[in-house]
Amino acid sequence: MIKKQKLTILYEDKNLLIVDKPAKLLTVATLKEKEHTLYYEASTYVKKQHPNNKIFIVNRLDKDTSGIVVFAKNEKTKLEYQNNWQDYAVNREYLAIVERKVLKDKDTLKNYLQEDKNHNVYVSNKGKLAITSYEVLARNRSYSLLKINIFTGKKNQIRVQLSNINHPIVGDKKYKSIKNPLNRLGLHACLLELKINNQNMVIKTKIPKEFKMMFDCLK
């Protein structure tokens, strides 16, 4: 892991740049914010290597979610990964801190999700199928730490499906969380098994320090 230009770089080669995004940082620009983004930092980094270098986003995370984000250094690589993301991203793991003690040690959640006109996603009897599995890594009386695997890539699927079983992610006011002990959303993309140069490579990050502080067994 190399820290350069504010970026925590997890992997880099001539085609890819994979970084660990902090929470509360946009992945790409919006109409209101152009420079305080992960894309801007990644672009600045590659342009310092050569002024003509460019960067292209492959996947993105919500502003309040931390973890692994993949950039391509050329448009050909970007299109290759985006067009085949379900095949290239062999395994995607997240860590989530949720409200209350989750009693089941592990489970798989399957729901159909829809989005309303206000861009809120909700569980429905129709829409697009979302499949998420979880395993409990730690518990206390008030919170649980889950390892999450996703098998589909639907908008907000982890957040919606955990809220639907009455275990919203902490700090996720949009999806019915009433507690925010971390002062951030308790969701972190911790592992990505990705096809790189025809080989499966595991890219991973450490458990965020603030997550560990929530559970005595992890301190």
Helix-strand blueprint:
Elements: E1 2-4, E2 7-12, E3 16-21, H1 38-49, E4 56-57, E5 66-72, H2 75-83, H3 85-88, E6 89-99, E7 106-115, E8 121-124, E9 128-139, E10 143-150, H4 157-164, E11 187-196, E12 199-204, H5 209-212
Parallel strand pairs: 5-11
Antiparallel strand pairs: 1-2, 2-3, 3-5, 4-5, 6-10, 6-11, 7-8, 7-9, 9-10, 11-12
Detailed description of the structure:
The protein is α+β, with helices and mostly antiparallel strands. The protein has two domains: 1-83, Pseudouridine synthase; 91-195 and 204-219, Pseudouridine synthase. The chain is built from five helices and twelve strands. The chain has helices at residues 38-49, 75-83, 85-88, 157-164, 209-212; strands spanning 2-4, 7-12, 16-21, 56-57, 66-72, 89-99, 106-115, 121-124, 128-139, 143-150, 187-196, 199-204. Strands 1, 2, 3, 4, 5, 6, 7, 8, 9, 10, 11 and 12 form a twelve-stranded mixed beta sheet that branches. The longest helix is centred in the first third of the chain and has 12 residues, at 38-49.
Key traits:
219 residues; Pseudouridine synthase; 5 helices; alpha+beta
Q: What order do the helices and strands follow?
A: EEEHEEHHEEEEEHEEH
Unreliable stretches covering 5 or more consecutive residues? 1-5
Round the mean pLDDT to the nearest integer and report it: 93
CATH superfamily assignment of the largest domain? Pseudouridine synthase
Instruction: Give the total of beta strands.
Output: 12
Query: What is the CATH T-level topology of the largest domain?
Result: Pseudouridine synthase
CATH architectural type of the largest domain: 2-Layer Sandwich
Helix content: 10-25%
If you compute it from the alpha carbons, what radius of gyration comes out, rounded to the nearest whole angstrom? 18 Å
Report how far apart the termini are.
22 Å
| Helical stretch tally | 5
CATH class of the largest domain: Alpha Beta
* Largest sheet geometry: 12 strands, mixed
Instruction: Determine the structural class based on helices, strands and strand pairing.
Output: alpha+beta
Q: How many structural domains does the protein architecture include? A: 2
Strand content: 35-45%
